[in-house]
Specification:
This protein is of the alpha+beta class and 158 residues long. The chain has helices at residues 9-22, 27-30, 85-93, 134-157; strands spanning 34-44, 51-59, 69-70, 77-78, 82-83, 98-104, 108-110, 116-118, 122-131. The longest helix has 24 residues, at 134-157. The relative contact order is 0.17. It binds zinc ion.
Length: 158
């Protein structure tokens, strides 16, 4: 006898997320130059009328995963949430000290009368990043080296 498994989209989504996070690299593995990362999040409902909450998160770059996802605070939301991983990748690529903006939840909320509508919760984010200086020094030394070689070649030819 088999029991039909009741679909629970919210739970299944969370399990998929956990899989993705568990297999991800840590921040320091993915971004060796990243020294610290602070995240401030503000949640708003669709009309921006009510401030649904704020979250401050200081990442431990040695242990925290490079996947930056935050669940939607709307408990009737399915398939929603916010993914700041791409924002982080772009910020580190540009060596930005801060990155801020807004993301809108792409999930669906089900109202009491079973009517489905887009969640549209809004996340205002601000990332503050700091970098280790060691990589920059190495890059300058590497740039200086080829020039010295050219000069040495010239004097040998003459
Ligand atoms: Zn949502």
């Amino acid at each position: 006898m088999t029991y039909p498994r009741k679909a629970n989209p919210r739970l299944e989504q969370r399990l998929r997320e956990m899989d993705r996070i568990n297999s991800a690299q840590t921040l320091i593995e993915r971004f060796p130059q990243l020294k610290s990362l602070n995240v401030v999040l503000g949640y708003f409902d669709e009309q921006r009328m009510s401030h649904a909450g704020e979250l401050r998160y200081r990442a431990n770059v040695q242990h925290a995963k490079c996947v930056l996802t935050f669940s939607c605070p709307n408990t009737s939301c399915t398939g929603g949430g916010f993914d700041l991983s791409e924002v982080l990748v772009a910020a580190v690529a540009k060596k930005s000290k801060t990155a801020q903006g807004e993301l809108r939840c792409q999930g669906t909320r089900t109202t009491a009368n079973k009517f489905e509508s887009p969640c549209k919760h809004l996340l205002h984010y601000k990332l503050s990043l700091a970098y280790s200086p060691s990589k920059g020094k190495g890059a300058r030394a590497a740039k200086a080296a080829p020039k010295a070689k050219v000069e040495a070649g010239k004097s040998a030819a003459a």
